[in-house]
Amino acid sequence: MTEQSRPLAVFDLDGTLADSGHRQHFLEGARRDWNAFFAAAPADPPLARGIALCLAAAEECEVVYLTGRPERCRRDTRAWLAAQGLPDGTLHMRPNTDRRPARTTKLELLRRLGAGREVRMLVDDDELVCDAAERAGFPVVRARWAAPTETLKDAQEREGRT
Questions:
Q1: Which residues pair with 64 in a beta bridge?
Q2: What is the pTM of this model?
Q3: Best CA proximity match to 124, nearest among 72, 50, 74, 40
Q4: What is the mean pLDDT of the chain?
Q5: Cα separation of 54 and 152, whole Å?
């Protein structure tokens, strides 16, 4: 089986593979500091359940990473993935100025990916993203192994930043 014929396993990063809890304080209050929030991402601890699932999926699937992180974080994100021993895979990031909700941007990309390949699974912690993907017919694994905060959920939905 060639790499192009393998099914895809699509993984979110924050809250799925990476524990972003230590940097969520940057989003509290009226003045959210998005630059500091993303600058602290290289120090994210790995989430063991997400990492294990990604490594297991890589045995049968081509791994694709789909994150709401802005494009300007690509170098740090690639280095973090490599440091965790995760498989090489295409990394889809949000354009720096795109503020649409993740459920919109991620579903658009899933549809493009699924047009020519089987999407075996989407693994994501955002319930709204998971709901939208399921409604569109994609198999979803809900990453419920990290503790989401209302601050991050609100920021994701209102400001489309991650």
A1: 10, 90
A2: 0.89
A3: 50
A4: 90
A5: 23
